[in-house]
Amino acid sequence: MQFKKLFSFITVAFLFTLLGKTIVFAEINITVGYLERMIPPPPILSNLEEIPENLGIAGVELGLKDNNTTGKFLKHDYSVESRIIDEKDDFIAAAKALLEVSNFLIIKAPIKDQLALADLPEAEGALIFNASEKDIVLRDYECRGNLLHTIPSYAMLADALAQFAVKKRWKNWVLIDGEFKKDKAYATALEQSAKKFRIDIKARKTWMFNADMRRNAAQEVPLFTQDFPDHDLIVVADENHDFGRYVIYNTWLPRPIAGSEGISPVTWSAAVEQFGAVQLQNRFKKMHSRTMGSIDYAAWAAIRTIGEAVTRTNSNDFSKIRSYILSDDFELAGFKGRKLSYRKWNGQLRQPIPLTHPRAVVATAPLEGFLHKRNEMDSLGLDKPQTKCEAFNQ
To answer: Containing domain of residue 233, as a range?
Structure first.
């Protein structure tokens, strides 16, 4: 890996020499802040899956290593200052402490904390990366000009699934959602995507059972789905992975399942292998002894964004770095088959969305045939005419 980085650097330097230009790399030290509020997950029916304690910060640590691998040839040095606080701790106090040492922050925290941080006077000259929250509001009417998003929105995920469904001609859906706020946000995004891609949602029901589905799924799920009208696809919005796993293979009609379970649109998955992704997967697993999750990937993309911008601008000037990140020249190699870039109108990182089940990638959106006048990846999520975000117009 280091040889490839060095070879690339030497190649660029040689080309500049041929052009009669001399490269002078400034000695730059960049500190990146990582701030996380640990929120205990709600109780769910199954305890088969444990959420890693280092979810998020693990991606930052890999990205830091990647930045320094390139940076040492350019006299650029990167470090991370982290604050991981409990649910009842003072988030704003921790944020202010980090802002004293860095104007680049990567955040894993609830929406209200992210907005409170972005609105701080001390954060006016900062660049904050949301690596965890998918809610559309942060890219819409509650956007902030200093808040970028490396995690895809629910709108992007839902649009990816809708494109796949249209390709398969599964244009009649029924929707099952959970009772949690994130379930409702995802379900709303799925409804909006269905409307966008002319899919008919025949019915929507909320799962409200608290029985032990490990024993009762074969009895409860058929009854719950028996009165659904005829449909092609069952879409599940269950972001805590509570009940959705029991819906599969237990429905009244034998139909494919998608959404939070079954065929799932995700930021990242262990099943992603193309475009050099295996190399990223292996490096992450070697460092952390587990597979890379979606929040890990989003956090990795955030710190790599900073590294890429510093490398290209050869500067640690905040305004230059922010302008470059939001320019047409910025590109991030994200192991997804296309160069990633940021939407100028709401700070969302454009990226392909893999549609996966646990053991394979089924498809990758945007799918062939879904065109866009500017960038095909803008067929996923809030496009410029749709968003109410005005913070990036200033």
So the answer is: 155-265
* CATH number reported for the structural domain that contains residue 253 in this entry: 3.40.50.2300
Q: What is the 8-class DSSP label of residue 20?
A: T
Peptide bond into 366 cis (omega under 30): yes
Q: Which of 226, 243, 265 represents a domain boundary (last residue)?
A: 265
Query: Is 209 in the same domain as 295?
Result: no
- 152 in the Ramachandran plot: left (φ > 0), alpha (ψ -120 to 50) or beta? beta
Would you give the distance in Å from CA 180 to the centre of its chain? 20
Concatenate the DSSP letters of all residues of 312-348 into one string: HHT---HHHHHHHHTSTT--EE-SSSSEE-B-TTT-B
Length, in residues, of the chain: 394
**364-385: pLDDT as tens digits:** 999 998 988 888 999 999 999 9
3-state secondary structure of 53: coil
User: In terms of domains, do 276 and 148 share one?
Assistant: yes
CA dihedral over 10, 13, 17, 18, signed as positive or negative: positive
Percent over 70 (pLDDT), the chain: 91
CA dihedral 308, 311, 314, 316 (to 10 degrees): 50
In tens, the pLDDT along 191-229 reads: 999 999 999 999 999 998 766 566 577 788 999 999 999
